[in-house]
Amino acid sequence: MAVFRSGLLVLTTPLTSLAPRLAPILTSAARLVNHTLYVHLQPGMCLGGPAQPQSSPVQATFEVIDFITHLYAGADVHRHLDVRILLTNIRTKSFLPPLTSSVQNLAHPPEVVLTDFQTLDGSQYNPAKQQLERYATSCYSCCPQLSSVLLYPDYGPGVLPVGSLDVPLASTISPASPVGRSAKQPVRGHQRGAVGGTFDRLHNAHKVLLSVACLLAQEQLVVGVADKDLLKSKLLPELLQPYTERVEHLSEFLVDIKPSLTFDIIPLLDPYGPAGSDPSLEFLVVSEETYRGGMAVNRFRLENDLEELTLYQIQLLKDLNHKENEEDKVSSSSFRQQMLGNLLRPPHKRPELPPGFYVIGLTGISGSGKSSVAQRLKGLGAYVIDSDHLGHRAYAPGGPAYQPVVKAFGTDILHKDGIINRKVLGSRVFGNKKQLKILTDIMWPVIAKLAREEMEQAMAEARILL
């Protein structure tokens, strides 16, 4: 089956039954889509019936938010996929106007629409696919030649029950009080709110934070993006994406998932940002790590005669595949660590340099790693010329420097067998600049001549030279 760059996954199974089925569904979708996968929640929708299904509002409950987190956590296994859960039809209790009939534009129009809906005979039932395609194109801008697939994921041994499994998902929002809340409890909406972060290499934990903020806000969401001094304490700050690039990816994601909101994306230059001074804001979404910062924002607001913001603390998304030296949460810091050793961009072309033959010089104090680097490059095919070895050749009896050195420093520097005693010679020259210059004036031209001869040999053999 063809692989598509972008796709729309329409989920129709009730959420309580959908959660344990999600991993196989995402695996099936990841085999068909290789870049952007939009997800549309329409639990309970039936395809293949006598009437064409229409999009209807889904009430934003804590269960819906927890499911969104569960989906993004499951999608983290498929990191080649940019998963985006669309929130257009998910409404808070205070704001449940009828859905408009306009078609929502998407940054990457889907080439294929997928669904977890299953027909009784387990086939690619044409009427169901036709209804699915009509449904998708009535909601979103899709490619003209839209394909459709009923997924029929492999759920493994056994048959999952059709009804509710009553298995609660992990809570996304930490309760503000010890009083328990129901999964079916509606989420309260606000007119305006804020969220902040670095948003480097936008990942699924960012998407949970942003999705909750978008669900809570009904008119405007202020998004602070850390810049300048706030980046200095970050791990590997030199590998952070530029501010403009982070904002570009962030803006595209936000407009895709909830275009009805007004987004105000601004640089965050201090710990408080607009959340500390904007009287129109009603809430602030924070993570477990930034909750103390949210408390500090509220203290700052009270000191300036502003009302406190309602804080929504979002649980961290765990990275089940993290390495020993990486954080156990989904983190941009870990992604930057994983980049170490990778070529970030093609080598800069230098047309003024010779096209084929290169001489690389390795220098450094004793123990700096010259030999290790040379051996690594030798393993890659480089021809290594070792100046120490050339010096030994030059000192040897019959070598080009043997007679000049003996003449300059006397026969008492020789062993009984006539070989130069380098230890004795070293005691003469080290610490005596005049004697050292006499030796280097003899040796350096000889070593340079031997090196040139080695280079010519390497060039004749068309080798890389080191």
From TrEMBL:
Protein's GO biological process: coenzyme A biosynthetic process
Secretion signal, residue range per the UniProt entry: 1-18
Span of domain Cytidyltransferase-like: 195-337
Molecular-function annotations in GO: ATP binding; dephospho-CoA kinase activity; pantetheine-phosphate adenylyltransferase activity
Acyltransferase found in the keyword field: no
This protein's UniProt keywords: ATP-binding, Nucleotide-binding, Signal
Pfam families: CoaE, CTP_transf_like
NCBIfam families: dephospho-CoA kinase (TIGR00152)
Protein name listed in UniProt: Bifunctional coenzyme A synthase isoform X2
Organism listed in the record: Delphinapterus leucas (Beluga whale)
Recorded name of the encoding gene: COASY
